[in-house]
Amino acid sequence: MNVKTVLILLVLALATIFALVCVLLTRGRAPSTCQHQPPEQEDSDDGQSLVFADLTPEEMAQVVRYLQGNLGVQLVDASRAKPSDNCIASVDLQVPAKAEVLQFLDGGGPRPPREALAVLYFGNQPDPNVTEYVVGPLPTPVYHRDVTVQKYGGKVPYHRRPVTGKEYVDINALIQRELRKAPRFLAACCESDGTDLAILTTAPRGFKSGDRATWFVLFHSVSGSGYFLSPVGLEVLVDHRDLQVSRWQLRQVFYNGEYFASMGDLEDMFVADLLEVIRIEKPQAEAVLGSMRPRHLPGSPGPLQYEPHGPRYSIRDNRVTFQGWSITFGMNPNSGPRLFDIRYRGERIVYELSLQEALALYGSNCPGGMLTRYLDGSFGIGRFAYELVRGLDCPYTATYVDRHYLAESETPRTNQNSLCIFEHDAALPLRRHFSDLQSLYYGGLRKNTLVIRAISTLINYDYIWDFMFHSSGAMEVRVHATGYISSSFLHGQGTDYGNRVGPHTLGTMHLHHIHYKVDLDVDGQLNSLETQDMGYELVKEPWGMQHTIERPYLRRKRLEREDEAAFPLNTPMPRYLSFAGPNPNKWGHPRSYRIQITSFAGEHLPASSRMERSISWGRYQLAVTRRKEEEPTSTSIYNQNDPWTPTVAFADFINNETITNEDLVAWISVGFLHVPHAEDVPNTVTVGNGVGFFLRPYNYFNEDPSVDSPDSIYFSSEQDAGACGANPLACLAPASACVPHLPPFRYGGFLNL
């Protein structure tokens, strides 16, 4: 054997050994079927969705620098600005006009200029006011124009501005100074010197335009637990209208059913033994009412949902695609989540789907509770959508997206991981049938849904905002309420306004009403509104004419004007109500999308109320109006602090214009009455506290579009249902080995408060 042969044999031996080692090392690993399979690329928009993109931190900073250098007035950072200063209150995207956007998206027109909307408080002027500027073009602004008069018909009075964090700080300092005037009373009633009491705002702030006097409710505060369930019975009224903080005054005091002119008067009554004092011990952390600390050691983990081959959706910039769906998403710092250009199979169905407002209206026999009508958009529904907790707020393997905002500061802030996107297996068939007649077979499809979710914490309540997209072409919008109930001190006939949920705690009744804007473009921009419902007709049976039949029949109607299409809250409305396009489907019916509402709303504020116009959107469970660029929102952040002269009154949108073959908008209200009870402690649960609506195809297609889903299952009695080739469910065993590598749990939600 020569040397060459030996070398060849040696090389072959080494190769064999290497191959065996590779086999041994890979034994037990997941098979190649576990490799990530990117979703099929849907139609590329070439960055078109960026026309709706929220501002980047860099763009916000550029707007701030431009305003500082071009307004000719001194601007103080809003985080430390006094009412008598000028400051930038917020900067957000100025959404371009719909006509410009559609010309760009559909008509090959130019990209609309990218602009920002800046809200400024001008307190250091002879005529203090709120002014809104459009600033552009971004990223390097060179112009600004005042749009306040164009939007609102005049300057916005200064008293309508939302309360800033700095204003609350100064109010709290005033309250602390006043509390020091009643040391013996506080020690007796609350085991406190006042510094450890939590102070909760109410709203609105008075009874007429120009008022800025707020009742503040005091609670025992225990670290690590919500204070909302521990009122001490003390509430104070602070007048903070004056632009000079030194002139603010405490106007009135409430304690245990009685009213006093000042904390000094309250102290004098206590010292004279003329005051009934309810002595409340300071709660301990381990026994405080409403503690969310676990009471047992962790058990075994619950079920974990994961994608064996990675996500089946795709996210690029502000656009997500999934099995025919394409959705552009964003977040308004005031009004919250907003979606644009929602398409299915390449056809636009919704131009805009956005949250407008969340109202919480309370009842109580304490002044703070009986006055409260929170309009959460004024506080910041989007701004207070904080980081989501991986594995609880959303599935562990969901995709998490950061959101940026600029409010009450010259520096942009980031709520990281504050929006999540995931595919959800509802563990329910979307459709199925087991055939036991004639032929034997089973056919079905799992209900898998794409979900876009954010959660806003607005003082005590947490709202879970869901936007869901089904393979049937349906959209589902849903909101759940959880978090802490608000409460009052239990005294007198308190249970006329709620239930007792603690030793001295009244869970106060309230209603949650939520408003949405839905700009549907069904088979084009020009739509009509059609209704269908049922009736019974009495007929003789035609084959004998001897007996009568109560035969259901279909009542069809096309609504012609806005007044017909405004359906008052809690009154019957047609069971089928659809936006109809101009063209028929294969079977001759107008291609339509149906609006189906699920709501348990409370009673709307009486029309006689002087503040009712500020929430007049709540009059209607559904109102359909002609779309107008000058009616972009149903409310305003300025309505909270001047509901008596609302900056935007939705009722004015309804003026009986024709709605046949027009660009239409559906304004939808959902909500529920909440009477707190013992089981709302420590927190209100989401079970039974969810409302929303569906947008469902109604003759839009020629058949259910989910028949094209690759997830469909079908097998007959003549097939081996256990064979992978006949039944995809039989192929799951290999996929079960594809457990993903979970990222480590991290949470930074406390870092950006």
Automatic annotation (TrEMBL):
What InterPro entries does this protein's entry cite?
A: Cu_Am_ox_TPQ-bd (IPR049948), Cu_amine_oxidase (IPR000269), Cu_amine_oxidase_C (IPR015798), Cu_amine_oxidase_C_sf (IPR036460), Cu_amine_oxidase_N-reg (IPR016182), Cu_amine_oxidase_N2 (IPR015800), Cu_amine_oxidase_N3 (IPR015802)
Q: Does the keyword Lyase apply?
A: no
Enzyme class comes to oxidoreductase
- Copper amine oxidase N3-terminal domain: which residues? 161-257
The catalytic activity of this protein is classed by the Enzyme Commission as 1.4.3.-
Q: Give me the Gene Ontology terms describing cellular component.
A: plasma membrane
Taken from the record, one Pfam family name reads Cu_amine_oxid
**Required co-factor?**
Cu cation
Sequence ranges assigned to domain Copper amine oxidase N2-terminal in this UniProt record: 72-143
What post-translational modification does the entry describe? Topaquinone (TPQ) is generated by copper-dependent autoxidation of a specific tyrosyl residue.
| Cofactor binding annotation | Contains 1 topaquinone per subunit.
What Gene3D superfamilies does its record include?
A: 3.10.450.40, Copper amine oxidase, catalytic domain (2.70.98.20)
The record places domain Copper amine oxidase catalytic at 305-706
Instruction: Say which family it is in.
Output: Belongs to the copper/topaquinone oxidase family.
**Protein name as annotated:** Amine oxidase
